[in-house]
Amino acid sequence: MDYAIIAAGEGSRLVDEGVTTPKPLVRLLGEPMIDRLMGLFLRHGATSISVIVNEEMADVQRHMEQLALPVPLNLVVRSTPSSMHSFHALRPFLTSDTCCLTTVDTVFREEPFAAYIDAFERSPLLDGMMAVTAYVDDEAPLYVRTDSAGMIRGFLDREEGQAAGCQYVSGGMYCLRRAALDVLDQAMEQGVSRMRNYQRMLVSEGLRLRAYAFDKILDIDHAADIAKAEAFLSTP
Question: Which of 83, 96, 181, 235 is the most exposed place for a label (fewest CB within 10 A)?
């Protein structure tokens, strides 16, 4: 499986709150977030890891260039207008039949992650399996509407999702197959922007997507989130 990490954001809220370390290098339990993700990926079938960072992150670029991994590590240095554009910048390296994409500040425990990857690999008829959680810890959550079988029927913004009684929000991690990458190309050609609009396009194109529930997934957006994430990871 090819793995990909979007680490191209500016982390402006962390900077505003006094965190001077670039977001991908913020440490959780002593380990940079981006290194923690790559370690997880290597333990769970990575055949390659691709990462995009923005052009201003010189420290992150140097960090990545000094790494020696047992699989190909592809680094893209580019500032993009949205996470969907960042995903597309990594597209040329995603050549396996399956890929897993996440943002660098997505925090989850390893045991449910391993089960998630296994569930996707055991579901060859699915075009995608999206990590979701009932734990809402986002300022602009994307609600995920599912049917009784757990298949995804829509991606809704906060007010619409709450009104529809959606149980889950997106966890910011996506396992995808080739058809979903083809839709990404279509989205770029049509001028679509934002990851959530790409996901909506997956639904409108009729792709087979299933939700996979994690008990909790956190994002690191604010300084206080760092201690929160460390406490979460330290809890059995």
Answer: 235
Contacts (Cβ under 8 Å, ≥6 apart) of 157: 140, 142, 143, 196
pTM for the structure as a whole = 0.95
CA-based angle 37:40:44, to the nearest 5?
A: 140
**C-beta separation of 176 from 128 below 8 A:** yes
CA 80/CA 75 separation, integer angstroms: 14
- Number of continuous H segments (helices) and E segments (strands) in the chain: 9, 13
Query: Tokens 């191209």, residue?
Result: 8
CA distance 180 to 209: 10
CA end-to-end span of the chain: 28
* Three-class secondary structure of residue 158 per DSSP: helix
Q: Which amino acid is at 132?
A: V
Q: What CA–CA distance (Å, rounded) separates 171 from 138? A: 10
Over the stretch 213-235, which tens digit does the pLDDT of each residue have?
999 999 999 999 999 999 999 98
Q: How many CA atoms does the CB half-sphere of 78 hold within 13 Å? A: 18
Tokens of 56: 């201003």
In sequence order, what are the beta bridge partners of 176? 99, 128
- H or E element: which one contains 90? helix 83-90
Q: Which of 198, 145, 179 is nearest to 6 (CA)?
A: 198
